[in-house]
Design a protein that fits this description.
8 strands; globular; binds erythose-4-phosphate
């Protein structure tokens, strides 16, 4: 299973990379707004920190403009994956970009059938948003389970990239479902490394070490 870090903050990305278990990065306009940095410069800086897929999102709403934007984004760095919003225009753009050999990540996916369309259009990744579905009282992870099952049934190469991850349980269930990737906020990545018994165990070992004769 691959882990991406869901951030446009290069300091956070650096920390995640140093933790040794990050394979790529996802950004979106909200994450860029949070750091208050321009897209192009941020993507180039991220590419210097990690050798893996970096999702950069299109803001156009029509296929032709999305393709133009996607071509420009992919020219920023060979690891750029063009993030395309789901919908008829997004699917058209995905197909056109796939035809040009440009990797895509279809975002804002909220149903397995939307995901199926993305795979058929030739998306490299599809991003089901689990947290936002949970927020409205629908079980987001069920969409992931069904999407993985459908992709397995037909041998689609499109990777299921679980997004809108809010907690470690989301990551556990994504892994059990066989999702290819989960994109995690740094806080969730750190939570995965923690356990109260680990903390307690370290404290006890250090306390006992004080009682060990030193030579
Ligand atoms: C990543 O690709 C998504 O844009 C991101 O995970 C969305 O997360 P949110 O629902 O917490 O904003």
């Amino acid at each position: 299973m691959k882990f991406f870090v869901d951030s446009a903050d290069t300091r956070e990305i650096q920390i995640a990379v140093e933790m040794g278990c990050i394979d790529g990065v996802t950004t979106n306009p909200s994450l860029l707004a949070k750091v208050g940095r321009p897209l192009e410069a941020t993507i180039r800086e991220i590419a210097a920190l990690i050798d893996g897929p970096i999702s950069a999102e299109c803001i156009s709403t029509q296929a032709e403009a999305m393709v133009k934007e996607g071509v420009a984004l992919s020219a920023l760095h060979p690891n750029v994956v063009v993030k395309i919003p789901m919908g008829v225009e997004g699917l058209k753009a995905t197909r056109a970009l796939a035809g040009k050999g440009i990797a895509t990540n279809v975002t804002l996916v909220f149903s397995p059938l939307q995901a199926l369309l993305c795979a058929k259009a030739g998306a490299s990744f599809v991003s089901p948003f689990v947290g936002r579905l949970d927020d409205i009282g629908q079980e987001g992870m069920e969409m992931v389970r069904q999407t993985v099952a459908i992709f397995d049934n037909y041998g689609f190469a499109t990777e299921v990239l679980v997004a809108s991850v809010r907690n470690p349980i989301h990551v556990l269930h994504a892994a059990l479902a066989g999702a290819h990737v989960a994109t995690l906020p740094l806080a969730v990545l750190k939570q995965l490394s923690e356990h109260p018994l680990t903390t307690l165990g370290i404290e006890r070992f250090l306390a006992d070490w004080e009682k060990v004769p030193k030579a």
